[in-house]
Amino acid sequence: MIPISPEAGSPVDVAETTKRSNFICGVVEGFYGRPWSTAQRKRLFSRLNKMEMDTYIYAPKDDCKHRMFWRDMYSVEEAEHLTGLIEAAESNNVSLVYAISPGIDLTYSSAKDVALLKKKLEQVATFGCKSFAILFDDIEIDMCEADKGVFQSFADAQVSVTNEVYQHLKEPAKFFFCPTEYCATRAIPDVATSGYLNTIGSRLLPGIDIMWTGPKVISKKITIKSIQEITEVLRRPPLIWDNLHANDYDPKRLFLGPYDGRSPELIPYLRGVLTNPNTEFEANYIALHTLGQWSKSNSEGVKRDCILSSAISEDIRLETDGELCLDEDTPVNEASSYVPRVALTRALSDWVEELYVPYESVKVKMIDMFYLPFEYGFQGSSMLCQLHWLKMNAHAMMEAKSPSVTPEQIALSEEWRSRCITLITSVHAIRGLMSKLQSIPNQELHKDLYPYLWDLSTTLSLVESYINWLGANKWYRDYFMSGDDEPWGFHGGLQAEFKRLLPFETAPDLVAFNAPVKANTPLLTIRPYEPQDKAAVYEVCLRTCDDGADGTDIFPDHPDLIADKLIGNFLCDSTEYCFVVEDEAGVCGYALACIDAKEAMNRLNDRWVPAMCEKYPKPASSEGLNPSEEIIASFHAHHSPTVDTATYPSSVRLDFLPDRVLCLDPNVPRRALASAVGALKVNGSHGLFVEVNVGDAATSEIYTKLGFGQIGSAEEGVTILARAI
């Protein structure tokens, strides 16, 4: 590809130009969200130096003086801060590029605005900064009336201001420009015929490098063919602003996989690559390390008209994933010196020194869980497949109990048990990793990883509860893996995939968890109820019966009485829908449910209440009763509440010890209810209700936060709360 230089009018070999000049490689802090701290940036400079990368762009979207209030000058304190950053960068052989993003409200034809822009950058230059960038990304494309009277187009306006500022600063060696059409999908109508891009390419001064994110905002792959196309339009090789590891669009995802989808044979066609990585600073070690390896893998700038396949090995990529999709006319070069799997191994070998966690533990349990935007690691994918298989073949466990069971059915049930154990072992391993990371010396890294590991662990805990209960939809992965759509269309990552396999499509709020404030909060176990749990469950009921408070002193003579009243019928007739919450000391909460509340009320009246009347004789008098006698009297004058069981066919009861559950992790009630709801939904329920005493405000609040609302009016001091599932 030989574009024409706009000034000299002579042909310029883009690859040779890139080879002659230094290949730019490093980091752009250009994400939305809380900017990195000064200490983090200084650690970044040290890492970039060690990894042989040379550039850092200061462009945090949420720094108000970078974008929203770009006209405001820096204070003395802020000036000292930036000066210190610039000096720290230089001491590590890193160029700090100060970026400003004025496009949000810049009037291009205003001499005052242009003068303020120059003045702002002049101020930063006095801090020692020698490199600059003007960013016009993510802004409205309509010009104001004043600009329309001066400029023919939006591109003309941006070029005019950028060229003027560039020359005013005496044409710095590094001066970057980010266009408004910064990827192929934003080019109107397309890259080759975009009037905007062609104007930028032909009129922007040749010493200004133009940034480009590839085919999409977040590109699964970037090919030589696509770079040749944009190079011809821009009249210069693009500087890639790479969002492969960016996660600011999805708070549930983190990307710890290697730099991938870009052949090192791209290097001679590019001005450079700057990664815009995870917002969590300490989570970017692998992204940076592997980018550094990639940038050095074709240091001679050798051109080849081909692109390497993804080369993700079988032990990392999805089981059904083939080679990275290539253009049909693009041959594959297997001899490249950069292989993502190998680069990941090298990066991990260095990173585990900071983690103080065994290499295999990190690789399998963490990296595979948080891989890349368009693919999961092998372990995560394997766990998804296992859960899908267990869900589809759960019938095997019931069939194995049949008197007429066949050898094939027995074999299938044994395979089900084996797969179940394998999946649960993986779940426990990930939970164990979260515990190990709590004690690593780099607590900032633990703080960055903790919310993601917690979300994954709570989801997997729900998975464990669900498949344990199973033991007593069309996949959209091909669509997801193609890279044809931006990854923010697939919110939630691996955790979301697990949740989609659970029966919560009509109650998604039950699988929405927030990490506890304290990073060392233990993850409590939720499992199906077993007969030997009865005494512990009764104890929890007694210690929470007084609107969440301990009722031991209220019922000194009959410690089982209140549990017989509130939950005894669940444990008698509906144990298959009951779950307990457990910590290291034992049972500390429960979620008890009944699939058919109407039938349960009939059994309650026919069997349970008579049994309780026999167990607890009626008080001799109806006056002056103590709390125990009032409960006993209620058995002898029992009335079932009026409930719309057609809309809310199931019933539930939740209780948790405050000091061991509610004070530590507010997610537990939601997780426990989700376990019960999963079992109910699989068996056809679509709604549930709970009976709450009118005066129990704290208990009512717990249910309200879980989506319950009052139905009907209170009867005999009891309120009915219900929700759809």
Please tell me about this protein's structure.
The protein has three domains: 14-355, Glycosidases (TIM Barrel, Alpha-Beta Barrel); 378-502, Methane Monooxygenase Hydroxylase, Chain G, domain 1, CATH 1.20.58; 525-724, Gcn5-related N-acetyltransferase (GNAT) (Aminopeptidase, 3-Layer(aba) Sandwich), CATH 3.40.630.30. The protein contains 25 helices and 15 strands. It has helices spanning 14-20, 38-50, 76-91, 111-126, 145-148, 154-168, 195-203, 224-234, 285-296, 340-355, 359-365, 378-392, 395-399, 407-437, 443-471, 477-481, 493-501, 534-542, 561-566, 568-573, 597-615, 627-636, 658-662, 668-682, 697-705; strands at 24-29, 55-58, 95-100, 131-135, 175-178, 209-212, 239-242, 272-275, 525-528, 578-583, 586-594, 650-656, 687-693, 709-710, 718-724. Mean pLDDT is 85; it is low at 1-20, 305-335 and 473-481. GO terms for molecular function: [protein]-3-O-(N-acetyl-D-glucosaminyl)-L-serine/L-threonine O-N-acetyl-alpha-D-glucosaminase activity; beta-N-acetylglucosaminidase activity.
